[in-house]
Structure formats: C-alpha cells, structure tokens
Specification:
heterotrimer; A: MetI-like fold; 12 helices; globular; C: alpha/beta; D-Maltodextrin-Binding Protein, domain 2; 3-stranded mixed β-sheet; about 10% strand
C-alpha cells in the first residue's frame, strides 16, 4: 500500500495541508510536553533548589539513582510484573476475543459491555475491592479456605502472592478494553482468506497458524506496547493496596519516584533524573517488544 | 446433520458459560460498589463474606454527598462534564488530523515530526509535573478551564491509533476524489471521517474517561469552587470525614455512571468501525 | 488640544494611582494554605480566620485556601518552582528541619514575642529549632504510638495493662481466640519510636557516617516482634494500615492495637458506644521504663519569600501563641485527640474544659507527651532497611542478628554512595 507517487501539481498543496493538519498537535506537544521536558532535563543535571541557585552536579543524580537499593528493587519488581502480566493478558484477551466472536449477537453485546465496565472503575475502588476479597480476617477467599479446613492465607505478607494479586487486579482492569481491540482485530480478517484456505484443504490448526496469527500481528503490537508502557508505569494499585509491602517487594519505580517527591531526602533534580531514567527503560523495552513481534511477522511472509 | 446441530448447541453452551463467568467477574465490583454505598459507615470497611448486603439500607451517604456545600458534588459533575466533553472533542480533532496527515500526506520532515510525536508516549507524567506547572503558571492559566483542558489534548497514542486506521483505508476512493479535483482536506472531511466512526468513538470515550477521572493535575491547578473536578471532590470527602468510605463509594458510583452511559451509547459504533480498521 | 491632553493625563494618573490609594486605607492581604483535614478542623480554621479578619485592631486580612493532602507535596513543589507560594502554610514536623536547611522557610525568632516562645514545652522547642533558630510556632502534637486496649476483655481474664514486653506477649497470648487476635504489630514508619526506645539511639551513628543498629536493644526488639508473629498472637497480614488501626479494637477484630493519637477521633466519631470499653496507655518497653514515642503534628511556617512575613506572624501569634483559651478551643473541637505544645494551654485545658474528666487525654498528656521525641530526619532509605530487617525475621525466619547485619551492610552502602555524613545539618 504505497503512499508515495502523487501527482506533482498536488504536491505543494500537500505541503501546506500537511503542515496545517499537524501543527495543532505539534504546538500542543511543544508547549505542554517538550518545553517542560527540556526544563526538567536541564534541572536533572543540578541539585535543583527552588529558592536558591541550583548548582550543577553533572551526572551525579543519575549515578545516585542507579546505585540506590530501593530504586533497584523497584526495577526488579516491575520487571516481574511485566513478565506476569503481559504474556498472560495477551493470551487471555486473545482467547476471550475468540469466545466473543462465537457468541450470538445479543449475548455478545452483553458480554462486551460487561467487560468494558472495569475500565471505567477507578484504581481506588478496584484496590479496595480486591483488598476486601483477600482480606486476612474477613475476606471471601480466606473464608472459603477456612471452610475447607485449611489455615488462613496471608496473601499480602508473602511477596509473590502480593505481587500476584496486584497483577490480577491490574489484569482485571485492563481485560475489557484489550479484549475489544483483539476482537476487532479478529473481525477484521477477511472471511475470504479462510474460505480460500478451506478450498485448499487446510484444517483448523493450519488456518489458525497461517492466517489468524499473521493477520493479528499488528494488533498484537498495539496491545503489547500498550501493556508494556502501562505496566512499567504502574503506580495506583500497589500504592493503594500494599504501599510497597511486604518489605518493598511490591514497590514500583513510579512509587519510588513519587515517594521521593514527597520527602526532602533528595533534591528534585534527583527525582527528575529517576523519572528520565524510567523514560529510557520504557522506550527501550517498548522498542524491544515491537521488534520482537515484528520480526516474527516477516518470517511468515 | 444431527451431529453438527448438537455440536452447535455445545458451542453455544460453552460460549454462554464463558460469557456469563467473565461478565460476572467484571460486573461484580460495580455491583458491590453500588450496594455498599447504601451501607452505614462502619459496615463498609469491615470485610465480612457473609454480609454482602447492608444490614440496614441507608441513604445517608448520598445525602451527605449532595448536602456538602464546601465541595458541591453536582457542581463538580457539571464542571467535569464541561471539561471532559470539550477536551474529548478537541482532542480527537487535533489527533485525527495529525494521524491523517502522517498516514496519507507527504511533506518534508514528515518522518521526523512523526517520531517526535510518538516519542512523547514514553515520557512518564511525573517527569514534567513541576515544570508544566511552571509553564502554565507563566501563561496565566491557573484557575481556569484552559489549564484543565489544554495540556492533555495532544496524545501520541491517539495519533498512532488514528494513523494506523487511516493507513488501512482503500486508496481507490481517495484517488477518484483527487482526480475530481478535491483538496486533501476535503477528502479528509468527506471520505475519511464518515468512515472512521470507530476510532473517533474509541479515542473520544478514552479521552473523556481520562479527563473525567483526573485528580492530581486539577488538585494542583484549580482551587476555585466553580472549577473543581469530580475526583477532587470525592477524594476530599475521604479527608474530611474519617471512615467516609461510604460517601466515597457513593460518589464513585455516581461518577462512574456518565462514562458507562457514554460507552453504552457508542458501543455499537466501536465494534462495527473497528471491523474495518484492520490495523495493518 | 493641550487642555484635553492634560485632562487625559490627570485621568490616567488618577486611575492608576487610585487602587494604591485605596489599598493603603484597607488591610493588607496575607495568604495561607491549609490542608483539607477533618470537617471539624476545617470549620475551626474558617471560624478563626473570620474572627481575625473581623478584628478592627488587626492590620492584615487572611485569605485561606484549602489544598488536598494527596496533592499537597506536588502542589508545593510546583508553587515553589513557579514562585507562587503563599505567605504561610502548614508543615509536618518531620519536614520542618529540611525545609529550614533548604531555606524554604524563614526563622520566626524576631517575629513572635518572647513570652510565646517561653510558654512552649522544652522538648517541643527542640523540634522546631534548626541551627539555633526557631522556624515554626507549634500548633499541636500527635504522638505516633499509643496503645489502645479493650478494658473489658483484659478484665475478664484478670489481666493488667502490660508495661513490659514479656507482659505484653503474655496478654496477647491470653486474648487470642479463634475469632479475635490478641494484638497487632504493624511494622511501618511507626517503628521509629520502638527503635529509639529499644536502643536509646537511632540506627545510624550521630555523625551519620556509619550504621549503628546491631546492639542488644535492637536484637531484643526484633526477637520480641518475631515471637508475636511466630506464635500468631498478631495477624500475619495487617488487617488495616497503621494509621487506621484504632478501629480494630472497636469492631472486635483485636484486643490490643497501636496507632497514633488520632485514633481517638476515629473511635469517638465512628464507635462512640465502644468508647467506655477502650483504654489507652503508653506502649510497653523491655523493662518497663517510659516509651519514647515519636511525635508528629502540624505547625504553621512562613515562606522564605513571603511578601507579608509580619502579617503572617501576626496571625500565627494571635491564633496559637496568645490567648490560651483561643488556642484551647482547637483541642476542644478535636475532642482532645490532639495535644497542645504550650504549658498555659495545657493548664487551661486541664482546669477549664471537659478535658479534666477525659481519661484518655490525661493519660496521653501525662504518660506519653513528656517523653516524646522528634521524628528522625535521616533518609527513608535507612528506615526502610530496618523494616526490611524486621520483615526478614518475621517472614524469612532469619535470626535478629543476621537480619540486622544485613541491614547494616545496606545502610553503610547507602551512606557511602551518598556521602551521607556530609548531609547532616548542624
């Protein structure tokens, strides 16, 4: 699908129209993102004091961030979250999209609206609900556990269980909108492809591997990158549910940065440096995910 | 024939079961939220698996919500609706124009500008929290609707989404219109937009939701009662009344209604539209 | 033509000079940023500002704004960066020292009369002094560690209020049943008081050059906590965050709990009928000597770049340092869940208000406040390592010595990375 090769008489118009159409977004991005970003970047190389002159400190802030034990722990934690959430969520939403495809019109409409609802519920409410469910004394899960004669489980006292529950809550919140995107991707594959394959004698498995998966690659990219950037910036849920506990095993980088914001332990230059480092992490991981899925696509062609 | 039919019923059964289970898991918290908003203050927080329904149904939480004069809830809803709707409309306009331009038009520096736009997706909000405040303050925007609307309008993800969609539309209609002498912009208006209901709806409702639920930026930039946003008001109850969770839930339940209604109205368009999108 | 110009010139001059002239006749405005606290707190603040503004003897008028606590730090940081801070605002004692060292607030020694300074408790004066200068006038104190217990449940089993760790462990054991835990022992920031009391010093050397967390006091503390968890006299997973734990004794979840003095307000508000069954006391120590709780609380400070520092000081003095009755009205509104920093106000409360019959208030004023200490000001990273050590004992089964040694290593590494000994303010 080429976008090149226009008639020259229209080319100059392209230029003007092109610029006119991108200028509003560029101006907005410039004023409200790039200007503040450059200001922040400049400050990250100083010990940014608001009232006195800021002294330049070179890369010291970045150095300190990378050496900090809590920050490092938060990076380890967030990588675990990424591993727990992304593959599982992609698989589940993909499967559910198939289920949606197979439903009758009315059942499907009901299901689509139902799964969208959690998207609308704020992090505060979601965290309260899941804290309730897994409450040690009166939560429904522990109630069932005791009914079965076992001892209560201290979900939030164990690092892995605590991480798991936060991951679960996060997945619950994102399931709906991601399933809809997967569903749309599936619906978009022309039926003719499948019919042609059937004529050629392909079985279900072959149709799936040779048609469905390659056609869905772009949707996978969209969903995967969305999940990656979202999960790497996770803040609300662990902040509200565990406060980073047990012993900082659910501390995320964004939580660490926000905590620094609130305390006077480090200068604001340090805090911004940490945020800029996270920006690099997010960008890097997103490109990695993009290449990972994209390269598999070219193999199949 | 019989075998296909019973397999068919089995399939329907399975799908129905899946639909019901997933829907129940998704809807349960909303139901809990609404029911708990009718509980007495201390009952709300005490986790008790056997007491799903309130022992006493009280309207007190809702009454408190509406009677509060320092932080009027209804006014906050109106104010937030104004901000969220206008911002959503402006946002899709700006971002779809950019998406179209990057998808279909050719101009010098296009790739660079495109990369610059997408790069902003990787910037965590907190990096520029303080410095954006400095910027908007120097522009004199504090305590106005503008400070709530303008900063978030251009969204990299939104531009990306629109671009993917527009890349997918068949060239045929476009070329025909070009030969007829239509300008690019005219094509955008009369060909692309009408066929692009779904991304507009998705991005529009997404933007609406983002503005509706925002707390930190409004808390930092507006203090005048007439501009207060609904999340600010809900959270302030938590500070003002210890154990005000019932009020918070009541507020959250009411605040969750408009986005759900918006989604319900537009959801037909979403699915249908995305069917054509084929983000390729 | 010339005449017209002259008239215009005069008119323009008049219009531009008039506002200035008017202002000179009216009062000067002073801006105050308060936080959104409890509704009774806000009502009191608003009433006081109204009274002050209506007073014809005052040269200043106060404009009060309320900011949400959840956005407070961000808003203050942004306001400082954009240079739009108010003249005065509220600050927590724990942030006070650093705000002073970073020069964000100004000293008040010369702005507030000496009698007001003399009226403060000595330990409180220390909390607001940095480099010999006083940077705030204290509003109220909130001890962070108060023990709440169910009088009726202890009485049923003929148990005395525990004063030592041994007694406490025993009481917790006796009161643990299938439906209720004997006690709670959250390990969060609240552990500061326990740490200092157990060892007599902070886990970092006085000069901030090395860790100092391995003496017997700390080992005993971790042993004590570890035992409570190992025997399950406390819930393995916190039922509630530390700040909200007071309600746990009121709703029959546990028999004894710890929380800040603000728990009293929570009980009075939400479980008034349980109030008579609940008692308060100082936390237990290893050998029964007084527990040194850290004390937090809010206080008024004046911004370093305030446009009207005298106006701000005038208000602060009027509100907090003058008439004891006026200041005492705050504590009455608070149902005595917060504590005063001034001797004259304490006296007023004890003799002229309902406080004299309030058991809780008496206990806290007499048994807790006099021994209270300021919160530590070293980096949270260090406190976090101590909590990690506790966590390792409780969940990973390490011995206290091992856990503390691990923490010492991390703390020393932190000190080294950050050149921390140079950070210490004098």
């Amino acid at each position: 699908m080429s976008t090149k090769g226009y008639h020259s008489p229209t080319r100059r118009m392209d230029l003007r129209t092109g610029y006119l159409m991108v200028i509003p977004s560029l101006v907005a991005l410039f004023i409200f993102v790039y200007v503040p970003l450059f200001m922040a970047l400049q400050k990250s190389f100083t010990n940014w004091n608001f009232y006195s002159a800021s002294e330049p400190v070179g890369f010291r802030n970045f150095e300190l961030v990378l050496q900090n034990q809590l920050f490092r722990k938060s990076i380890v934690n967030i990588l675990w979250f990424v591993l727990m959430i992304i593959p599982a969520q992609m698989l589940l939403t993909f499967l559910f999209a198939h289920a949606l495809k197979g439903m009758s019109k009315h059942l499907g409409a009901f299901a689509k609206t139902a799964v969208y609802v959690p998207t609308v519920i704020s992090g505060i409410v979601a965290s309260v609900i899941f804290l309730f469910i897994f409450n040690y004394q009166g939560g429904i899960i522990n109630y069932l556990v005791r009914q079965m004669g076992m001892k209560r489980i201290a979900f939030f006292a164990d690092p892995w269980l605590a991480r798991g529950i936060i991951a679960l809550t996060s997945m619950w919140m994102g399931f709906g909108s991601l399933s809809l995107i997967m569903y749309a991707g599936l619906m978009n594959i022309p039926v003719s492809y499948y019919e042609a394959a059937e004529v050629d004698g392909a079985n279900t498995r072959q149709k799936f591997l040779r048609i469905t998966i390659p056609s869905m690659k772009n949707v996978f990219i969209l969903v995967a990158i969305s999940l990656t950037t979202g999960t790497l910036q996770m803040f609300d849920l662990p902040y509200l549910m565990t406060g980073g506990n047990p012993v900082n095993n659910t501390l995320t980088p964004m939580m660490y940065i926000y905590n620094n914001f609130k305390s006077a332990d480090y200068s604001m230059g340090y805090t911004v440096a940490a945020a800029l480092l996270m920006m690099i992490v997010i960008g890097t991981l997103s490109s990695f995910v993009f290449r990972l899925i994209r390269s598999e696509k070219s193999q199949d062609e | 024939m019989m075998k296909t039919k019973s397999r068919h019923s089995l399939a329907i059964g399975v799908f129905t079961a899946i639909a019901l289970v997933v829907s129940a898991i998704s809807l349960f918290p909303l139901v809990w939220m609404i029911i708990s908003s009718f509980k007495e203050a201390k009952e709300v927080l005490k986790a008790n698996p056997l007491r799903f329904f309130p022992t006493v149904w009280v309207r007190e939480n809702y009454v408190k919500l509406f009677e509060e004069t320092t932080y009027p809830f209804l006014q906050a809803m109106q104010s937030t609706a104004l901000v969220a709707v206008s911002a959503a409309l402006l946002s899709v306009t700006i971002n779809s124009m950019a998406g179209y331009a990057y998808a279909r038009l050719n101009f010098r520096g296009k790739t660079l500008l495109w990369r610059l736009s997408i790069f902003t997706m990787y910037i965590p909000g907190i990096t520029i929290l303080v410095t954006s405040f400095v910027v908007v303050n120097s522009m004199g925007l504090l305590d106005t609707y503008w400070v709530l609307i303008l900063p978030g309008l251009a969204s990299a993800y939104s531009i990306f989404f629109f671009r993917q969609f527009f890349l997918n539309m068949p060239m045929a209609t476009e070329e025909a219109a070009l030969i007829d002498g239509a300008t690019r912009f005219r094509i955008f208006l009369s060909v692309f937009i009408p066929n692009a209901k779904s991304p507009y709806v998705i991005m529009g409702t997404g933007a609406f939701l983002g503005y509706w639920n925002s707390f930190l930026w409004p808390a930092m930039t507006v203090t005048n009662t007439q501009y207060l946003q609904v999340m600010q008001v809900i959270r302030s109850y938590n500070n003002m009344y210890s154990n005000a969770y019932g009020v918070v839930l009541a507020g959250s339940a009411l605040a969750a209604l408009p986005p759900i209604i918006v989604f319900l109205i537009f959801q037909r368009h979403i699915v249908k539209g995305l069917m054509i999108s084929g983000i390729k | 033509m010339k005449r017209a110009l002259a008239v215009i010139l005069v008119a323009v001059l008049a219009i531009t000079l008039m506002p200035a002239a008017l202002a000179a006749e009216g009062k000067t405005e002073v801006v105050l940023w308060n936080q959104i606290f409890e509704d009774w707190n806000r009502a009191w603040s608003e009433k006081m500002v109204e009274e002050f503004n209506a007073d014809p003897n005052q040269k200043y008028t106060i404009k009060q704004e309320f900011v949400d606590g959840a956005a407070w730090d961000e808003k203050v940081a942004a306001a400082r960066a954009a240079n739009v801070m108010p003249d005065m605002f509220l600050v927590n004692y724990s942030n006070l020292k650093w705000n002073a060292v970073d020069k964000y607030i100004q000293p008040l020694d010369d702005l507030i009369p000496q009698e007001a300074w003399d009226d403060l408790h000595d330990n409180v004066k220390e909390m607001i002094t940095v480099n010999g200068q006083k940077f705030a006038y204290p509003m109220m104190l909130e001890p962070a560690v108060v023990m709440y217990y169910r009088k009726d449940l202890l009485a049923e089993k003929n148990l005395e209020v525990p004063k030592t760790w041994e007694e406490f462990t025993n009481v917790a054991k006796e009161l643990t049943t299938n439906d209720m835990y004997g006690a709670t022992m959250n390990y969060e920031w609240s552990m500061w008081g326990w740490e200092y009391t157990a060892a007599g010093h902070w886990p970092i050397a006085d000069d901030w050059a090395s860790a100092n967390n391995q003496d017997q006091g700390y080992v005993d503390l971790l042993t004590f906590i570890g035992d409570l968890y190992a025997n399950e006299y406390v819930p393995l997973q916190p039922l509630e965050g530390y700040n909200g734990s007071a309600r746990l004794v009121a709703d029959d979840s546990v028999a004894i709990t710890f929380s800040g003095s603000w728990g009293i307000a929570a009980i009075m508000n939400d479980y008034p009928e349980m109030a008579e069954k609940i008692g308060v006391a100082a936390a237990p120590t290893k050998d029964g000597t007084p527990f040194k709780s850290t004390v937090g609380g809010w206080t008024y400070v004046i911004d370093a770049k305030a446009r009207q520092p005298e106006g701000a000081a005038a208000f602060i003095h009027w509100l907090l340092g003058e008439d004891p009755g006026r200041t005492a009205s705050f504590f009455e509104a608070a149902n005595f869940s917060k504590y005063s920093a001034r001797k004259s106000v304490d006296e007023y409360l004890a003799t002229q208000t309902a406080a004299k019959d309030d058991q809780w208030m008496q206990t806290i004023s007499q048994d807790i406040i006099p021994h209270a200490i300021a919160e530590p000001i070293y980096a949270w990273d260090i406190s976090a390592q101590m909590l990690t050590a506790i966590g390792e004992v409780v969940t990973a089964g390490l011995s206290p010595e091992e856990a503390l040694a691990n923490a010492a290593e991390q703390i020393n590494q932190f000190i080294q990375n950050n050149n921390y000994s140079e950070k210490k303010p004098d």
